[in-house]
Amino acid sequence: MMAMTENIRKILQETSPALLELKNVTVVRGGKKVLDSVSLSIEPGEHVAIIGPNGSGKSSLIKTFTKEYHPLAGADGLVLKILGKETWNVFELRELLGIVSGELQQTCCRPILALDAVLSGYFSSIGIYYNHRVTPEMETRAREVLKFLEIPYLADRKMSELSTGEARKVLIARALVHDPLALVLDEPANSLDLKALHTFRESVRKIARSGKSVILVTHNLQDVIPEISRVVLIREGKIIRDGPKEEVLTDSNLSELFSLSVKVLEKEGYYQAWC
Question: What would you report as the CA-atom Rg of the chain, rounded to the nearest whole angstrom?
Fold first, then answer.
């Protein structure tokens, strides 16, 4: 783990590459283009929201970065790079991207301790098993992350007994335990009530201010925290807008994105939309 961390640091210092880079990437699933000639570059430390309706290709974009989906071979000018490299071991990607998704939360809803759920981030598993060697340093780090997120009291609670908001924060701790360069949140606020949404957003803001990239994938404007400065709009597998938040989140752009009349309201860095 330490050698990989040093390798990443060396890449950043010597070449200053983009954290994530796509150029003319097309992905086909089930005979349908879920991404259509997509070009996108995200820099280390940049906070970006990727917004689109259900089925627009948002999750497919993330799965392409994490090597779950593979671009169509032979596409003109095809580029898929992470930190300037086209080839990464899946285990190496854990050092770069911490992922939290609704699918992961469903999978983790088991009678395992929250601390073990966080530690399992080291092994890309759900829970700790006999062949996993948990070092004292790993446990210390896991407890530090729980403390950073202000949920150390959840360590000995079972995941299956936590509220949706509590479980979501534990999964963020799991994503952060190996100290990735970026936190990727896929539809992060689904099923959260108002209080849980508030505490969740405060946690994400704290992470953004710590220096990690936050990449937020959502269909809901209220998930966009003030620290996000750039917004990408995606529809039918194509990026239709990409730029500063204030320029992209407009009535006309959101109306085009969702194919209905939308009014956008901004207050203290947060956004809401009405139809």
Answer: 19
6 vs 136: CA distance, rounded Å:
21
DSSP H or E segment with residue 210: none
Domain holding 253, by residue range, is 2-274
Considering only CA atoms, which of 80, 85, 77, 48 is closest in space to residue 65? 80
Query: One-letter amino acid identity for 174?
Result: R
Q: What angle (nearest 5°) sits at the alpha carbon of residue 2, between those of residues 153 and 44?
A: 80
Enter the pTM of the model. Answer: 0.89
In this structure, what are the phi and psi dihedrals at residue 270, rounded to the nearest 5 degrees? -105, 150
Report yes or no: 7 and 88 within 8 Å, Cβ to Cβ.
no
Distance CA 148, CA 152 (A): 8
Q: Which residues contact 223 (CB under 8 A, 6 or more apart)?
A: 49, 185, 188, 189, 201, 216
- Following DSSP, what letter does each residue of 198-230 receive, concatenated? HHHHHHHHHHHHTT-EEEEEES-GGG--TT--E
Q: Which of 214, 204, 197, 218 is nearest to 101 (CA)?
A: 218
| Percent of the chain topping pLDDT 90 | 55
Could you tell me the CATH number of the domain that includes residue 199? 3.40.50.300
* 7: Cβ contacts below 8 Å, ≥ 6 apart: none
Q: How many domains does the chain have?
A: 1
Task: Name the E strands within 64-206.
Answer: 79-82, 97-101, 182-186
Q: Is the pLDDT of residue 81 over 90?
A: no
Q: For residue 38, what pLDDT is reported?
A: 92
